[in-house]
Design a protein that fits this description.
Blueprint (H helix, E strand, L loop, with lengths): L2 E4 L9 E3 L10 H15 L7 E4 L5 H8 L5 E4 L3 H14 L4 E4 L3 H6 L11 E6 L6 H11 L7 E12 L7 E2 L2 E9 L2 E8 L10 E6 L6
Parallel strand pairs: 3-4, 3-6, 4-5, 6-7, 9-11
Antiparallel strand pairs: 1-2, 7-10, 8-9, 9-10
Length: 215
């Protein structure tokens, strides 16, 4: 079975993860380091809120969060084979606080927070749909940014992983695009919950281009 890289840091640091299949695009170590460096910088001391891993695949993002101290993580993945791989990766890493939801990510988000499994108010979210489905990325961001659905804490950070040419929206409900960082064909778009009705456009594109990285 193919691998999905390793856990970078924390209690499960160094352990290798399985991938659902050859067609998946697991987080590379370089992308993972950048993503979690940004999350930990934004969160300050510790992980105050649960983590949501949408279109979870191997579960690498949520597992990295749990390893680094997230109190809990929800993995949403519709493919039954991938859901089994997530369960196996959690078994290998001996990490608790995990909930696996075998469901379409957009359908799950449409439920609203009050109906979701073990919802506690997400402080960090990774959105990683298939690169070919840019519409799913935009739809997921819109539902996350919908105050009426109530998914996010006011200090939440949402990170979208996508093909570098398929940039996400600058705004999605309460979410505002803060910056974009590119890693070869992969890009990470960082979104924050806007305070009040602030319309200021502070979007920045990170000039670094780590073309040697594969996600």
């Amino acid at each position: 079975m193919p691998e999905a890289g390793r856990v970078i840091a924390g209690t499960a640091g160094g352990l290798r993860l399985l991938a659902p299949g050859e067609g998946t695009r697991p987080l590379s170590d370089r992308v993972k380091q950048s993503l979690f460096g940004a999350l930990e910088s934004a969160m300050g001391d510790g992980w105050p809120a649960p983590f949501l891993d949408l279109f979870a695949g191997s579960g690498a993002a949520g597992i990295e969060a749990l390893s680094r101290g997230a109190p809990s993580a929800v993995f949403v993945e519709r493919d039954p084979r991938a859901a089994k791989v997530i369960a196996e990766n959690l078994r290998r890493t001996h990490l608790g606080g995990a909930t696996i939801v075998q469901r379409d990510a957009l359908a799950y988000l449409g439920l609203g927070a009050e109906n979701a499994d073990r919802y506690e108010g997400f402080g960090a979210v990774v959105v990683d749909p298939p690169y070919a489905d840019s519409a799913a990325l935009a739809a997921a961001l819109e539902r996350l940014g919908d105050h009426a659905l109530g998914w996010l804490r006011d200090d939440a950070l949402v990170i979208a992983k996508h093909f570098w040419r398929d940039t996400g929206p600058d705004r999605a409900g309460s979410l505002r695009l803060d910056r974009v960082k590119r890693f070869g064909e992969t890009a990470l778009s960082f979104y924050r919950v806007a305070a009040g009705d602030d319309e200021t456009d502070s979007t920045a594109v990170d000039p670094s281009d780590d073309r040697g990285s594969q996600a």
